[in-house]
Amino acid sequence: MIAKTPAPPYYAVIFSSIRTEVDDGYGATAQRMVELAKQQPGYLGHESVSDGMGITVSYWDSLEAIKNWKANTEHVLAQKKGRSTWYKSFKTRICLVEREYGFEK
């Protein structure tokens, strides 16, 4: 589903990743991170796809909200597990959304 975001400007965090073969609770942790992110002040929505490479884009109202999410205690633990176990590689990009347009039937 395409996230319903407010009129720009707002921020997008693009997390691109390639997984290892190890599951070790990945699915449950990923779901918990979604639930937890939704509770964070400044969270606007997210979109996620996975087909060999995973891409999750989360939307935030400020850089401060992104900083606070990155520092969330449970999220920090998940980040550590990601580096040690779940990901072969990943990249995070933070972007300012200045303009958007779309189509919906």
Number of strands: 4
How much helical structure, as a percent, in the residues?
25-40%
Helical run tally = 3
CATH architecture classification name: 2-Layer Sandwich
Taken in chain order, the helices and strands follow as EHEEHHE
Strand residue percentage: 25-35%
The dominant shape is globular
Gyration radius, rounded: 14 Å
Cα end-to-end separation: 14 Å
List segments where confidence is low: pLDDT < 50 over at least 5 consecutive residues.
none
Q: Short summary of the structure?
A:
With 105 residues, this protein is α+β, with helices and mostly antiparallel strands.
Explain this structure.
The protein is built from 3 helices and 4 strands; from the N terminus they run βαββααβ. It has 105 residues and is of the alpha+beta class. The chain has a single domain, classed as Alpha-Beta Plaits, CATH 3.30.70. It has a 4-stranded antiparallel beta sheet. Strand 2 and strand 3 form a beta hairpin. It is globular.
Topology:
Elements (H helix, E strand, L loop, with lengths): L9 E10 L6 H13 L4 E8 L3 E7 L2 H9 L1 H14 E11 L8
Antiparallel strand pairs: 1-3, 1-4, 2-3
Helix pairs in contact: 1-3
Name some characteristics of this structure.
105 residues, alpha+beta, Alpha-Beta Plaits, 4 strands
